[in-house]
Structure formats: C-alpha cells, structure tokens
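Thread: Newbie trying to understand structure tokens

Hi all, I'm a second-year student working on a class project, and my supervisor (Dr. K.) asked me to get a predicted structure for one chain before our next meeting. I've only ever worked with sequences, so writing a 3D structure as a token string is new to me. If someone could post the tokens and maybe explain what I'm looking at, I'd be very grateful. Here's the chain:
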Amino acid sequence: MNALNTLVRPTPSDTREHRDPGEESFTGNAERTEEAPTSGRTAPRVRDADGMAVASFVMGLAGLLVFNFVLGPCAVVLSGLALMRGTTRRFRAVLGLSLGVADLIVLAAVTAADGSASWSIAG
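---
Reply by user tm_fold:
Sure, no problem. This is what the structure looks like when written as tokens:
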C-alpha cells in the first residue's frame, strides 16, 4: 500500500458491487434501489450555515451580559451570513440577528446614560 492509496477515499461508485441488471441481490429481492444523487458542495455549505446560525444565537445571548461591543456585531454578521447561505435553522439565525441588534442597543443606551461602554447587574 503506497501513500497515495491511504490519502484517497473510495467514492460510493467504487465501493458498490457491480452486477448485471437482471441479477438478484443477496437477499433474493429482484428489485434494485438507486441512491439519490447528492451534491458534495451543498451539504457542507448548509452545515456551515447551520453552525453560523447557532453561533450567532449564542453570541447574541451572551452579548447581552458581557462584551456586547464585540459579541453584538459578530452575532449580526454571522446571522446574516447564515441567512444568505440558506440555513435550515432560519429561526435561530433570526434570533441571533435580533439579539445582536439588542446588544448594540444596550451598548448605545449604556454609553448614553453614563458615558462608559460597560455595565454590570449590580449597578
């Protein structure tokens, strides 16, 4: 076995057993099921978009308590990217967007109230 064989994964068409169309399968069933073709590019992109939606929600939620000047804009950007890439977790991305905007509103209110960019629950 050489180094090239260890780096290359076999494709599903390489691992399938080749049979004649009239030949029965191992179970004795003459019907053959065809796999639905999947695009290798769309699945990772949607999975990345789902991760961005979750990250934007978590950052927006945490940004209400700490580091709202950093986590708020990050939540807004990540949720926008997730929505543009077509996430399946659309509601979570919208929540991340709204929490990121709320972070920025809290930052603006705190800055206007006492002139600082930080706040604490204790007062």
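A couple of things are worth pointing out once you decode it. The CA atoms of residues 61 and 99 lie 6 Å apart. Residues 43-123 form one domain. Feel free to ask follow-ups in this thread.
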